[in-house]
Amino acid sequence: MKFPSYAAAGVLSACLLSAPAFANSTGMTGNSGKSAATCSSCHSGGTAPTVTLTGPSSLAAGATGEYTLTITGGPGLRGGMNVAVDNTAASLEPGTGSKKQSNELTHNAPKPAASGAITFNFSLVAPPSAGSVKIFAAGNSVNGDNNSTGDAAATTSLTVNVTGNNEPQEEEGGCSSAGGAPVLAFALTTGLALLRRRRRS
C-alpha cells in the first residue's frame, strides 16, 4: 500500500518534533547557564523549580570537594541537569546517574524524584594553584510525558575559593629544629673541652 504524500510528511514532522525531547533525555551540555543558554530553551510551560548547589565554598589547591545539585518544585516527576565550570584547570567528575561530556556533566537519563527532590552528586577537583572556580548548574524538572512542554528549568551557581600551599619553605642552609641539632652538639662539646682545660690549668 502506498501512503499519501501528506501522510508521509506528517510522520516525518512528528519525528522531527519529538527528536529534541528524545535527545535531551540522555543528557545535554552547553545549557548550564555559563554562556547564558539554559534548559529553558527547550523545556517550558511548567512551574519553575528551585535549584541549589551544596558543598564546600573553599578548597585547597589540588583538593577534591563533593557537591550536590538538588532540584525541588516544578513538575517534579523526573529531572535532568547540566554542570560546568569557568576554570579550565579545574576538573568535574560525575557521580551516580551522570556522565562527563565536553568537560561538563549531564544526566544519563531523567532521574526520578525521591521524597520531593531530585539530586545529583558530583566532585570538583580544584586547580593546582590558588584562585577561584565558579560552578554553573542548571536543573530541569519534567512531567515525564516525553515532550518538552509542561516542563521547567532553573539555574544557580557557586563560587569556590581555591587556597594555595602557604606552608613556609625552609631555605637551603637554614637552621631548623632538626638541622640545628648537630651545631648545638658541637658547641656543647667544644664548651666542655674548654672548661676541662681551664680546670686542669
Automatic annotation (TrEMBL):
InterPro entries: MYXO-CTERM, TM_Gly-Cys-Arg_CS
Name recorded for this polypeptide: Cytochrome c domain-containing protein
Signal peptide range in chain numbering: 1-23
Lineage: Bacteria, Pseudomonadati, Myxococcota, Myxococcia, Myxococcales
Keywords: Signal
